[in-house]
Every structure is written in C-alpha cells, then in structure tokens.
C-alpha cells in the first residue's frame, strides 16, 4: 500500500497526512520483520481499513500476523504455534539480529515498538521509540493507552485458533466480547467492570456471612447471659442458706449443752445407787471364803493317798507287760517252727512228684530217638533233591536279573533324553529368550542402514554377553534389562504413548543398583563397541504427582480421564522409578474421549491443575473409545503439550497438538502376543511331539520291566519255598543227635532227684521236730509267771478305786463352795464396774458440756458482740425445731443445698464481661448492617448501570447479527442469559441455516465447520463498531465455507470495514488473511481495500515473476507503472 508509504519519509512519519488517509489512534502503519521465520528483512505498510493479506500456502501470510501479535505483547500461546520463542528465528540465522517492529499512531504522533528475539536464551528485549523498556511497561502502554489486547479472540484470531472461537461457551463469548468494549480512555473494558462487580458481590457476600456470624455470636452470648443470671440468683439463695445454717449451728450447740446438763444429773443418781449396793455385797462374802479353805485341806489329803496307790499299780502293770511281751515272742517262735516243719514235708512231696515226671519224660525221649534213627536215610535223600532244585531256580533268577538290568538302563537313557527335551522346551518358554526373539523380529523389519536396527542389535548382543558373563563379574546387585522386557502394559494405547514419552534408547537400556556395577559393565562393554545405555537409580522414590489419580478421575470424569500412564504399567519398583523419573509417566494423563481433538476447556483446566506446582510444561494423550486401525497400523491417538509462560501471569496456557503415528512395539501388552513368537511356537511344537514320543517309549519299556519283575517274583517265591524245605529237612537230619543229648541230660536229672528224696529230707525233718519240742516247754513256764502278775495288778486297782471315790466326793463339795463364792465376787465386780461406768459417763457428759460451753463462747467471739450473739440465739430459739435431732436434719438439708453448688467469682466476672460484650456486639452488628445496606445500594446502582450497558450492547449485537444473517438468507440472534452471579452471565448465539428453521444454539455438534465460520464472521462484524480495539486480525476465516457463503461473507466484511466517510472514519483497522479469493468479487473494487500480496519462500520466484505480474496489471488498468523494489534482503510493498 502506498497510502501509508506516502506519509513516511526518511524514517519520519507525517502525522497530519496519516489522519487524512483515515488512520486512527492505535492503527498499525508499518510492520518490519528481520530474520523472522521465513523473512530476511521485510517492511510492510498496511492501509487504514481492510487489509487483504493474500498468498499461496507456505509463503508467509501467517508470519505477518505472528509479527503483529509478538510486537503487541502477545505470547506464543496466543499464536498457537511453537511454545519456544527461539523457534521464531529464521533457520540458519541463529545468533544474528532478529526482531519484529511496528509503528502505531498515538496522540497525533507515532510510537515505534520493537521486540528483539534471542535464540540462545529463548528470551526477548523491548524498546519504545528507541528507548529500552520492560515488557510490563510496554504491555501497560499497549493495553491501557491503545486498547490493544491480542489475547482476545474478538480482536486477534490467528490461524491455529480460528476454530477455538466457535468452541467458546456462552460465558466465554460474553467475556471476550466485553474485553473488546472500552468504557473510558484509560483502557478499562466492560469485562473489567464485570470482574469488579463480581468481586464487590463476593465481598458483599463475605460481609453478610460475617454479619451472620456476629449475630450468631450475639445470640450465643445473650443465651449464656441468661444462664449466668440464673446462676447469680442461685448464689444469692446459697448465701441466705449459709446464714440460716449458722443460726442452726448455734442453736444445735445450745440444745446439746442443755441436754448434757440433764444427762449429768441422771448419771449422778445412778452412781449413788450402785455404791450402796456394792457396800452390802462386800459384807456377805466372808463366811463363804472360810468354808472354801476347809474343803481344800481335806481334798489335798485324799489326793496324796490316791497318788501313792497309783504309783504301786503302775509298777505292777509294767512287770505284767514285760511278761506278756516275752510270752508273745515265744508263741511266735513256736509258730515259726511249726510252719518250717510243714514246708519241709511239702518239699519232700514235690521232689517225689518231680522224680516221677522226669522218669516219664525220659521214656518219651527214648521212643522219639528210636523213630528218628529209623527215618534218617530217607531224610538225607530228600535233602539232596531239594538242594538241586534250589540251584536250578537260582540260575534262572540270575539270568532274569541281567535282562531286568538291561531294561532299566534303557529306561534311564529315555528319562535323560526326556529331561533334555524338557529343558529345551523350558528354554523356549523363558521370558528373556522370548523377548530376545521379539527383538530379532523387530530388527528384521528394518534395513541395515537404519539407526533403530543398530540400537536393537546392540541390545541383543548386550543381553547375550550378560547371560554369559554376569556370574563371572560377581556384581553387587541385580541387573534389570532391557527395561522394556520387565514392563507389562494393560492398554495398547498406553503402550504406544509410553514408547513416545520414554524413547527407544531408554527402553532398551539396562538398570543396575550400584554405581560400581555400572562402571564395571561400561568398562567390559566398551571394547565390544556396543552402544547401550546403563543407568543407576540413586533415588528410589517416584516423583510426586501434581494431582492425585483419584482426584484426576473424579474432577475430569466427563472428559473420559482414565488416569496417568503409570497406572497402566506393571513392573518392578526400580523400573517404575526409572520410567517415572525419565519419562514422567506418573504426571502424563491418558483420556478416552469421543474425538481425538480434546476441548480447550479440558486442556486449560487440566493444564492449570497439573502445572500448579511451578512446572512450565505438561503433556497428555487421548484416544477414541473404539479406535479404528488404518492400513498403516497406526492408532487414532492425539498428543497435547501445554506450556505456561514464565511472565504471562494468569494468561491462558499455550497448547499444541500432534498425532502419535506408531511405535516399535517394544512394550508388552498383557492382552496381546509379541512378534517373533511364530518360530518359537513351531520349535515348541516339535519339542512337544518328541517329548510325547519319548513318553510312549518309556511307558512300553515300563510295561516290559513290570512283566520281568512279575516273573522274578515267582522265581523268588519258588526259591524261598525250596529253602524252607531244605531247612526243614536239615532240622530232621539233626533231630536224632539232639534227642540223644536230651536223653542223657534227663538221666542225670533223675539221679539227682533220687538222692534228695532218700537221704537229705530225713535228717532235716528230725532236727525241726526237736527244736519245736523245746520251744513248747519254754512257752508254758512264761504263761504261769504272767498269771501271777495279773492277780497282783487286780488287787492294787481295787484300792485305787476306793481312794478315787472319796476324793471325788470332796471335790464336788468344794466345787459348790467355789461356785457360791464366785457368784458373790461376780456381783461385787459387776457393781464396781457399774460404779466406774456411771462415773465415766458422768465425767464424759461434764466434759462434753464444758466443750459445748467453750464452743458457744467461740461462736460469740466469731459474731463479735454478745448482743449480736444473743439475737442469733433468740432467733434460733424462735425456729420451729426444738430438738437436736430436728436441728441436725435441718442442718443436713441446708448443707446439701449449699453443697450442690459453689461460689465462683469467675461466674460473676464472666457475667459482667458478657454484659459489656453484648453491648459492644450489638453496636457492631448495627454498624455492619448499615454498611451492608450501603454496599448493597452501591452494588445495585453499579450493577444496574453495567447491566444496562451490557443489555444495550446485547440488543445492538442481536439487531446487527440478525440483520447480517438475514442478508445471507439465514436467521440468528444473540441472547443475554443472566444466570448466577455477574461473572457467570452468558451471551448465547442462536442460528438457523434452514428456511423457517428453528433457532438453535451455535454448537459444534449441530452446525458444520463452514456454518460456524459464517456465524463467527457475522458476530465479529456486528461487534465491529462497538469494540474498542483499534485493529482486528483474522487468519483464514473462510476455510470450510462454500463459494456462496464465502462471497456473502466477504461482501459483509467490506461493507462493515469500508463504509463511506464520515461514517467510515474512525473505524478499526482490519487484517483478513486468506490463501485465495473467489473470482469476480465486486466488493474488492473499493478504495479502502488494501491488498498485501505475500509471495515469499524458496522456489516461488522461479514460477512466478511478481514484478512482471504487477506491471502487466498496471498496464492493463491504464494506471501508472508500479515502482517495485525487490531485494533478497529487503522488500517494500
């Protein structure tokens, strides 16, 4: 455009000419890009109204919008491209100067803002009018003074976020619309007013809650005060009871003293009567004592005579006892001799019987000996026959044993073959061997030059080397590897995402527990030139999750959040720590949403939750519930990266997305089978068949061995029978000799028994008979002496009995006298005790009365004066209780009433404090109510004013939106929904693209992409005159429209942006980026339309000569020739 270039001379703008051209405050009049994206050095001069940025795809149209965004304090997240600022430096120009610069009109002058990008530290520097400034200063000027907000999609809609506006919720549509409308010259918008009203409303609600809390506290204190009033009244009544208790205490002492005086008089009368009775009893006891002394003398003489008779009788009884003992010993000796004589006779009879038995046995043995001698030749013949049979059976058993040993050797050989085959089969089933075959299958799918093939082959070689050398190395800990071999994944999609996050080198690496083991393995593998990674995990803890898995599933359930990638992983703890540290699997979510493209609301909320602990980047994956596998084997999985700016404050996250194309299949999915298992299956089948064949051979051989063993058992049975027969015959052969020996032995026994019966027995019998006769004579002499001693004892016993009877009579008379004397003395003692008791009771009563008198004096001293004490005593005597028992009952009642509580000074202090607190809280509640009423009135006034403005804007938006849609033969309306608080109000677009169709909410699930694009453009056009932003940028809004809609939309854009003056003056600048335009657009024939033709990029100049095209167009139109200066470094349009 030469409209702005005409006002620019030698780097200086002519402000008066700019106003004549139609530029307004905030309009961009110049854009310069150096080493930025695809540009070396490019300078653009846009027009004041509609700027059509046209060019083929890939020529750098969006580069212009990126430059505007970054120069106006935008972030990479606003652009929707790379999150790394250094990526905007042109490739090959790293380290050289790179900047974007814009000239903007402000206060009848211009402001030049430059942002220099640094590819090394990924930062940027700012200058305004050549003076270094901070980003916050530039942003404050751009947003506050120029009302430029590139963060608002109503003002700046880059290519990657065109679709985001159509996915805005009604609440977000209202927020972005209000951001576009300023309320004053200081840059404040209706959105700022909305937020302030929401804050004021929240503050009002907080104040109301505080007021309710204060009222609740006031009611609680009043309730406590009423409770303390009852306690205070109870304490007053308790003091009165204490005074009355004192009166009753004085009365009780007085009554007890009076009762004790009466008791003393009664005790004195009792004492006098007892003393008189004691004197009478002492006079009657003397005759009884004299009688007792006489009887005791007579009784002593009789006792002495009785003792003498007893001594004589004892001596006679001792002699009689000695004779009886001697007689008993002699009787026992005679009895023993009689028993021995009987035993000797019995032994004689038994010896004769034994002699007869032995003679009979001797006859039987002689008969058996004769029979055995006769049968001896026959037995010897049978014995020879039995020996020959036994030898024959032994030879057969030896031959059978050799055959059985050969069969058992064959069985052992078959068992060894079976074990070897089984070991081979188990080796094929070893997980490590299976994974090795799987890696071999993956490696065969690559060409020899492919780097992945080299990594997999090195991993296989490292596995083989470790299997052969680990025992030799004697490492301190275990070696886990490759890492992927120890992982089981529960979901195919999760396995693909894990390989994407962790990477092939780390999945094919090896884990060790100690640094010394890692160093040793690296030294051993280095000569082999095997490129494998060996890791040591010094920290054994899994990094913490930014958001717990349970809370993640609960808060984001509607979007199908299944959890983190680590939730689908089954592996050893050391492997889990390794994968979570290097791949961050415990902080990367996996969702299962209906579409691969996730809503921005989910990504913003989830990213904010996961980045709340200070992290700047977040990654997540999504796959459809029923993924369709295309021909290339990839799954429908989307990868999303969210980045939070370090300086953007509460700005939305920058989100980028891509497709996950495929993986090597290194991780094992539990439900599926790995590659390379076909060859292993064939080998396993062959080994299983060989194992079955060996088993059949073993079974046949086992049957043959069983048959041989049965035959061997039969032969062994025959051999045992022959041996038993031979032993029996040998026994019969030895029987004559054994019987001859027994006959000789029996003859010697008979001779011995005959001698005993004939000689020894007679001598023993005569000796026993002589001894028995002598014992009987001695026994008769002892019996006669014993009878004489018994007669003497009888005579002495009769004399003792006579003496004893006389003494018993005297003792009976003495006992009667003693009893009479004891009765008399007991009466005297009882009277003495009565006298002493009466004296003690009298003295005790006197002491108690003296104590009561002293107690009365003490009570008088406590009162202070005698008159006061007499008044208390008089008051007590006037009470109805007249006895001590009644007074004690009354005192007990008063003590129970007083003891039911206690005097607590803290209660009185609390009562006084509560009175003051209630008064203070009452005043505070009244003040808070007044303040709340003022706030409600102020809020009502501001809210009414803001709501009127918003309603007016909504009404204007509705009218214009409906008119614009009607011009396209469609229907539409904009509805303001006042729901909830101020910050939850909604602005709903409702459209109908069918003739006389029902208006429905604009939604991606109802309208097509082209219909949503048409509605979005019409809404932005309706917002054109009300928005405060000085320019708008829309990148490829016409994508997805058909020719009819695109033509109608373009006409509307031109009409809204290029109306004739004076109505058109002051309208915002508009940048519309599109790769193409329809033929025959009559609206392009407008002086306010500026075409910026972007024709940049390698290879473009070889096909199109832009200078020739422009010259021919100028010549065709008959205008003046265009002056175009082209340069490889600098281009001016």
Query: How would you name the oligomeric state of the polypeptide chains in this document?
Result: single chain
- Record the strand order, biggest sheet: 9-8-7-6-3-4-28
Distance between the termini: 6 Å
| Major sheet details | 7 strands, mixed
Describe the structure.
This protein is of the alpha/beta class and 1133 residues long. The protein has 25 helices and 28 strands. Helix 8 crosses helix 18. The protein is flat.
The gist of it:
This protein is α/β, with parallel strands linked by helices. It has 25 helices and 28 strands. The protein is flat, with a radius of gyration of 66 Å.
Q: Which secondary structure elements does this structure contain, and how are they paired or packed?
A:
Elements: H1 2-5, E1 8-9, E2 12-13, H2 15-21, E3 28-36, E4 39-44, E5 50-54, H3 61-71, H4 76-79, E6 99-106, E7 109-117, E8 124-128, E9 131-133, H5 135-145, E10 156-157, H6 162-166, H7 170-179, H8 190-283, H9 286-428, H10 431-444, H11 451-473, E11 479-480, E12 488-489, H12 492-502, H13 504-507, E13 510-512, H14 515-525, E14 534-536, H15 549-555, E15 561-564, E16 569-570, H16 573-582, E17 589-591, H17 600-610, E18 617-623, E19 637-643, E20 654-659, E21 668-669, H18 677-863, H19 866-877, H20 884-899, H21 905-967, E22 971-977, E23 986-992, E24 1000-1001, H22 1009-1022, E25 1031-1035, H23 1043-1057, E26 1069-1074, E27 1089-1093, H24 1100-1103, H25 1106-1117, E28 1131-1132
Parallel strand pairs: 4-28, 5-26, 5-27, 10-25, 12-21, 13-14, 17-18, 25-26
Antiparallel strand pairs: 1-2, 3-4, 3-6, 6-7, 7-8, 8-9, 11-13, 12-16, 15-17, 18-19, 19-20, 22-23, 23-24
Helix pairs in contact: 7-8, 8-18, 8-19, 8-20, 8-21, 9-18, 10-11, 18-19, 21-22, 22-23
């Amino acid at each position: 455009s030469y409209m702005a270039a005409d006002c620019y001379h030698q780097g200086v703008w002519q402000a008066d000419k700019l106003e004549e051209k139609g530029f307004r405050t905030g309009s961009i009049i110049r854009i310069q890009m150096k080493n930025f994206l695809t540009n070396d050095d490019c300078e653009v001069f846009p027009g004041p109204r509609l700027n059509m940025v046209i060019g083929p795809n890939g020529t750098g149209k969006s580069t212009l919008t990126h430059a505007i965004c970054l120069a106006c304090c935008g972030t990479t997240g606003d652009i929707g491209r790379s999150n790394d600022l250094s990526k905007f430096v042109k490739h090959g120009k790293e380290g050289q100067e790179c900047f974007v610069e814009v000239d903007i009109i402000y206060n009848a002058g211009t402001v030049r803002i430059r942002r220099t990008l640094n590819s090394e530290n990924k930062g940027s520097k700012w200058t305004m009018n050549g003076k270094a400034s901070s980003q916050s200063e530039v942003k404050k000027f751009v947003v506050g003074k120029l009302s430029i907000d590139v963060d608002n999609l109503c003002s700046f809609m880059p290519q990657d976020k065109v679709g985001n506006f159509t996915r805005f919720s009604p609440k977000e549509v209202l927020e972005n619309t209000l951001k576009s409308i300023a309320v004053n010259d200081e840059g404040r918008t209706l959105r700022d007013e909305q937020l302030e009203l929401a804050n004021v409303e929240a503050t009002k609600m907080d104040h109301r809650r505080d007021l309710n809390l204060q009222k609740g506290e006031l009611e609680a204190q009043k309730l406590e005060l009423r409770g303390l009033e009852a306690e205070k009244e109870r304490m007053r009544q308790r003091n009165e009871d204490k005074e009355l208790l004192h009166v009753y205490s004085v009365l009780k002492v007085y009554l007890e003293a009076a009762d004790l005086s009466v008791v003393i008089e009664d005790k004195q009368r009792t004492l006098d009567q007892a003393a008189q009775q004691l004197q009478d009893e002492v006079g009657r006891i003397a005759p009884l004592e004299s009688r007792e002394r006489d009887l005791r003398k007579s009784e002593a003489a009789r006792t002495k005579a009785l003792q003498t008779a007893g001594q004589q009788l004892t001596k006679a009884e001792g002699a009689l006892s000695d004779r009886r003992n001697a007689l008993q010993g002699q009787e026992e000796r005679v009895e023993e001799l009689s028993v021995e004589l009987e035993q000797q006779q019995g032994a004689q009879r038994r010896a004769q019987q034994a002699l007869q038995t032995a003679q009979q046995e001797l006859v039987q043995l002689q008969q058996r000996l004769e029979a055995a001698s006769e049968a001896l030749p026959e037995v010897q013949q049978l014995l020879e026959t039995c020996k020959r049979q036994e030898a024959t059976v032994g030879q057969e058993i030896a031959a059978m044993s050799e055959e059985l040993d050969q069969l058992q050797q064959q069985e052992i050989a078959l068992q060894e073959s079976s074990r070897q085959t089984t070991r081979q089969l188990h080796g094929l089933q070893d997980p490590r061997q299976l994974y090795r075959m799987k890696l071999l299958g993956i490696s065969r799918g690559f060409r020899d030059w492919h780097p992945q093939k080299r990594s997999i082959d090195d991993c296989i070689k490292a596995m083989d080397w470790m299997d052969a050398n680990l025992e030799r190395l004697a490492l301190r800990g275990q070696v886990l590897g490759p890492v992927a071999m120890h992982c089981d994944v529960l979901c195919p999609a999760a396995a693909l995402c894990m390989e994407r996050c962790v990477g092939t080198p780390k999945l094919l690496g090896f884990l060790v527990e100690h640094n010394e083991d890692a160093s040793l393995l690296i030294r051993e593998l280095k000569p082999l030139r095997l490129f494998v990674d060996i890791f040591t995990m010094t920290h054994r803890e899994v990094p913490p999750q930014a958001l717990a898995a349970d809370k993640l599933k609960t808060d984001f359930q509607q979007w199908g959040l299944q959890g983190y990638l680590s939730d689908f992983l089954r592996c050893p703890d050391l492997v889990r720590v390794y994968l979570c540290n290097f791949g961050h699997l415990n902080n990367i979510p996996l969702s299962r949403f209906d579409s691969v493209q996730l809503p921005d609301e989910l990504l913003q909320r989830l990213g904010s939750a996961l980045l709340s602990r200070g992290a700047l980047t977040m990654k997540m994956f999504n796959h459809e519930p029923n993924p369709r596998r295309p021909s290339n084997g990839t799954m429908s999985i989307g990868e999303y990266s969210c980045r939070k700016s370090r300086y953007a404050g509460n700005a939305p996250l920058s989100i980028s997305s891509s497709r996950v194309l495929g993986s090597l299949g290194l991780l094992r999915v539990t439900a599926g089978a790995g590659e390379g298992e076909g060859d292993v299956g064939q080998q396993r089948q062959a080994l299983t068949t060989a194992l079955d064949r060996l088993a059949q051979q073993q079974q046949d051989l086992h049957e043959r061995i069983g048959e041989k063993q049965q035959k061997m058992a039969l032969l062994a049975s025959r051999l045992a029978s022959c041996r038993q027969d031979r032993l029996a015959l040998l026994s019969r052969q030895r029987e004559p000799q054994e019987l001859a020996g027994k006959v000789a032995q029996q003859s010697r026994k008979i001779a011995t028994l005959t001698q005993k019966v004939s000689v020894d027995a007679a001598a023993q019998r005569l000796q026993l008979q002589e001894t028995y006769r002598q014992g009987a004579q001695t026994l008769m002499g002892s019996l006669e002496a014993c009878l004489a001693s018994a007669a003497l004892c009888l005579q002495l016993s009769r004399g003792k009995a006579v003496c004893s009877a006389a003494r018993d009579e005297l003792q009976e008379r003495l006992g009667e006298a003693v009893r009479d004397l004891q009765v008399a003395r007991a009466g005297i003692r009882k009277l003495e005790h009565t006298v002493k008791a009466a004296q003690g009771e009298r003295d005790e009563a006197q002491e108690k009365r003296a104590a009561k008198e002293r107690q009365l004096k003490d009570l008088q001293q406590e009162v202070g004066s005698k008159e006061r004490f007499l008044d208390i005593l008089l008051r007590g005597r006037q009470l109805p209780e007249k006895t001590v028992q009644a007074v004690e009952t009354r005192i007990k009642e008063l003590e129970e009433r007083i003891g039911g509580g206690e005097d607590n000074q803290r209660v009185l202090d609390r009562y006084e404090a509560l009175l003051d607190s209630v008064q203070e809280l009452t005043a505070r509640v009244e003040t808070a109510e007044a303040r709340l009423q003022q706030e409600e009135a102020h809020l009502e006034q501001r809210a009414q004013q803001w709501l009127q403005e918003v309603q007016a804007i909504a009404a204007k938006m509705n009218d214009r939106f409906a008119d614009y849609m009607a011009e396209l033969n469609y229907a539409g309306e904009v509805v303001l929904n006042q729901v909830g608080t101020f910050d939850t109000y909604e602005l709903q677009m409702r459209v109908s693209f069918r003739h006389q169709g029902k208006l429905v909410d604009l939604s991606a699930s109802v309208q097509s992409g082209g219909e949503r694009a048409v509605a979005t453009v019409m809404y932005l056009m309706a917002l054109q005159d009300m928005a405060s932003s000085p320019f708008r940028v829309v990148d490829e809004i016409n994508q997805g429209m058909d020719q009819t809609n695109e033509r109608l939309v373009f006409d509307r854009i031109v009409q809204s942006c290029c109306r004739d003056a004076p109505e058109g003056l002051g309208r915002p600048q508009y940048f519309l980026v599109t790769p193409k335009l329809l033929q025959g657009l009559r609206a392009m024939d407008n002086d306010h339309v500026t075409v910026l033709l972007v024709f940049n990029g390698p290879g473009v100049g070889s096909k199109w000569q832009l200078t020739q095209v422009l010259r021919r167009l100028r010549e065709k139109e008959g205008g003046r020739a265009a002056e175009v200066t082209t340069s490889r470094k600098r281009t001016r349009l």
